[in-house]
Amino acid sequence: MLTRMARTMPSSSARPRRLEGNGFADVFKRGHFGWEYKGTKANLDVAFAQLQRYAIALDNPPLLIVSDIGTTIRIHTNWTNTVSKVYEIAIAELADPDKRGWLKSALSDPEALRPSKTRQQLTEQIAGEFAQLARSLRERGHKPEEVAHFINRLVFCMFAEDVNLLPNNMFTRMLDQALVDPAQFESFSGDLFAAMKSGGRVGFEMVEWFNGGLFNDDLTFALTSDEIRIVQRAAQQYWGDIDPSILGTLFERGLDPDKRSQLGAHYTDRDKIMMIVRPVVVEPLLSDWRSRLTEIEKWYKSASEARARIPVDQKEAKRVYQAARRKEKSSEREAVALCHEFLERLRAYRVLDPACGSGNFLYLALHALKDIERLVAIEMETMALTYGFTFNVPPPMVGPSNVLGIELNPYAAELARVSIWIGEIQWMIRNGFDAGRRPILKKLDSIECGDALMTLMPGTDGEESHWVQTKWPRANAIIGNPPFLGGKLLRSQLGDETIGRLFKLYAAEVPAEADLVTYWIERGRCELRNGTTERVGFVATNSVRGGANRRVLGKIADAPGFLSAWSDEPWTVEGAAVRVSLITYGPALAGEIRRLNGSEVEHINSDLSGTALDFTKVRPLYENNGVAFMGDTKGGSFEIPGEHARQLLQSPRNPNGRSNADVLRPWANGLDLTRRWRDKWIIDFGWEMTEEEASLFEKPFEHVERHVRPARLTNNREHYRKFWWRHVEARPGMWAALRPLSRMIATPEVSRYRVFAFLPTSIVPDHKLQVIARDDDTSFGILASRIHLVWSLKVGNWHGAGNDPRYTISTCFMTFPFPQGLTPNIIRHRLCS
Up-side HSE of residue 222: CA atoms within 13 Å toward CB? Predict the structure, then answer.
């Protein structure tokens, strides 16, 4: 957004311009720098702090330059996602071509001064070092949670030192002394942590009160000289620009040092997070401020016009002057009241992340709110100067209490609190203000530790305890990145008891087959409906666009509607590359434009498309019933190589007099269709055979008992444990439909290119194959046609980092309108006749 102060500048930026009036930068060149210069031997730190306070009004130029007369020029880099760097040039050294080149770049090519190392690269470098430290501590028997807690303390100490909250390089000097005698490290660090707990003294130096939960005790570990060197190397980096996402990374490394891929799970690109924060938090607040600013300008302008009125004679002068004074006071009062009214709204504004993890979303939301508060103060000051009034700039009041969080893991909740406080301290320092004190890290009860979906309510008056939906704290905006867990994995990952409660509590709102993330999406919709929030934005798996998930999104598409959506974006979860959808929803502002993948649209459908023809409204057709099925789900290592299968087929008959051919069949999955058959067979005891009957097939049963039974006996589902020798979903309906046929049509559930193939019905199709119980060429031709291909791409969804099309029976086959006279029920009738 162009600030009002910036708009008063001449349109040409070919050369630096001196700003008129009191305050702001002395020299400004748009897109290049803001420059503050002082008298001889002035305090350049104070000058830099002053310049930082006005950087927002200058659209945050990439360079902030301070200088005094005749001594020093300092060029501070100001890019968002890079580590900070200072280029210092003594005036006497301007003959040096390199230093003269820095100054030339500042004037004409600031990109040449951009630091090459990003925050993410700093995170990656240090995370690798600390993984080695975490592994050493774990190998000595220390508890994982304590190792993670300890490492994050070390990181925060490095941050505190580099922003001068720990005085005189205290932490670095402690490491230097510990290297002289490594046996003293535990004592040294214990003394420091104890002082940071409540404020105190280390030697002759005072340490401020930090605590905030991170320093609630003096827990530390003895380190070897090599381990101290790891910390020392890390301390040599500049930690003032630390992205708090590294705290989540290092926490994971402390819990499990081998989770190298976990870096991406916690280092989330800030631009991606802002794709949620901007439309949900920033844009509605700025829209409100712009409308107020227009009114404020009218009041100031009317007062200015009254002041400029020229009386016709001396007799009228007094009356004109008095009217102008009255108008000035009333206009200024109205203008300031409008500003204060907005600031009060902003300071009461709350942002909730109900799955906050280590606090990345809340960290950026806090910065966004503080930026808006600072922008308001600067724009008001600028307008007052423009029209000749005074405006007392209020101090920043937006802070950590403006963000709320819910997090199940108590250690992650602690990290979220620390991340938010780091964000607060960074913003204050970066904008030229002092960080708060006593304590530096205040208690943040607004970050709750608990389950965001279910809460156990204690019984009263003799009633038993019971589970209810968790009540979320009231907030103006809800944002976040809830856990990604597919509907089919819920039971195995969370357990029968937990899922049973979840399904019962949300039965009316969320289909049982839906992904876990949809429970947060639905709760956000309910908060909007109940009037307890204004806007919602979440990151979800891109599978949210299809299947059972789409039913949840369908209610949002109808009302209140999606505000913006990105249907398919790259993301990283637990180190794995995935594809996600980003959605924001809530009542639209007057004249607000809805955006899909960055483009304007009139409406966003539940499949996150913007087409006028809404394919999400298609419904299953009764003509297509009983024809298509998901293949067999084995639920264990029932498959065997063809060579082994043929040996079993040649074995003597079993004690029951039957051949192994009765329970051995060729097996195929998606790879066998898209490449070549791999000669895999499968042991299949059907869906009715008892354990005693199955055991009479001696060799096959022995294989299943050895390779399948151990895993199945630990399964969460009782049915899977009880019938461990059977496939978990043997699809008797599919086999009944295939019985009269010699071949079937099959297609992979997930495939970059949609292919259909005939398979003999003697083959057992895996659950990753979708099976159509037809053996006629007509059905095959229709399914393989371009019309059906386009249809399946439109109504289906996508899977994995490769974003491959996913074909499901319920969405792609059951809804497809076959040509008149060639529907599956008619073809079946003709075949039977």
Answer: 7
Give, for 628, the enclosing helix (H) or strand (E): strand 628-630
The type of residue at 613 is: L
8 A C-beta contact, residue 238 and residue 158:
no
pLDDT tens-digit readout, 454-491: 999 887 777 788 899 999 999 999 999 998 888 778 88
CB atoms within 10 A of CB 508: 6
89: number of CA atoms within 13 Å, CB side? Answer: 24
Other Cβ atoms less than 10 A from the Cβ of 786: the count is: 7
CA distances from 292 to 168, 412, 535, 578 (A): 46, 39, 21, 42
The Cβ of residue 719 has, within 10 Å, a number of other Cβ atoms equal to 10
* DSSP per-residue letters across 163-187: TTSSGGGHHHHHHHHHHHSGGGHHH
- 591 close to 284: Cβ distance less than 8 angstroms: no
Round the average pLDDT of the chain to a whole number and report it. 85
Tens-place pLDDT, residues 350-374: 999 999 988 889 999 999 999 999 9
Report the distance separating Cα 128 and Cα 122, nearest Å. Answer: 10
- Name the DSSP class of 27: E
Which residue in this structure is represented by tokens 């394919």?
615
Task: State the Cα–Cα distance between residues 608 and 598, nearest whole angstrom.
Answer: 12
Q: What is the pLDDT of residues 516-558, one digit of tens each?
A: 999 999 999 999 999 999 999 999 988 888 878 888 999 999 8
Q: Are 579 and 800 in contact (CB under 8 A)?
A: yes
**Is the predicted pLDDT of residue 574 greater than 70, yes or no?**
no
Q: Alpha-carbon distance 666 to 663, whole Å?
A: 10
- Collapse the DSSP code of 571 into the 3-class scheme (helix H, G, I; strand E, B; otherwise coil) and give the result: strand
3-class DSSP state of 596? strand
CB atoms within 10 A of CB 320: 15
- pTM equals 0.75
Query: Three-state DSSP class for 438?
Result: coil
* Structure-token pair, residue 49: 């702090």
CB atoms within 10 A of CB 559: 11
What is the β-pairing status of strands 447-449 and 403-407?
parallel
Cα separation, 807 vs 781, whole angstroms: 17
Q: Return the structure tokens found at 525.
A: 């919709």
Q: What confidence tier does 451 reach under pLDDT thresholds 50, 70, 90?
A: very high
The residue among 367, 334, 346, 332 whose CA lies nearest residue 288 is 346
CA-nearest of 659, 608, 652, 618 to 812 is 618
> Is the pLDDT reported for residue 664 higher than 90?
yes
Q: Which SS3 state, helix, strand or coil, does residue 727 take?
A: coil
Query: Which residues fall within 8 angstroms of residue 822, CB to CB, at 6 or more apart?
Result: 778, 782
Tell me the one-letter amino acid at 379: E
Contact (Cβ atoms closer than 8 angstroms) between residue 502 and residue 454: yes
Contact 368, 275 (CB under 8 A): no
For residues 622 and 824, is the Cβ–Cβ distance under 8 A? no
Contact between 313 and 285 under an 8 Å Cβ cutoff? The reply is no
Within the chain, what is the greatest distance between any pair of CA atoms? 128
Residues in the chain: 833
CB 96 within 8 A of CB 222: no
The pLDDT tens digits for 378-416 are 888 888 877 777 778 788 999 999 999 999 888 788 888
Q: Which residues contact 318 (CB under 8 A, 6 or more apart)?
A: none
Structure token digits, residue 36: 């503050």
Distances (CA, A) of 305 to 302, 335, 698: 5, 15, 102
Q: What does the alpha-carbon distance between residue 377 and residue 375 come to, in Å, rounded to a whole number? A: 5
Residue 833 CA to residue 827 CA, distance in Å, equals 10
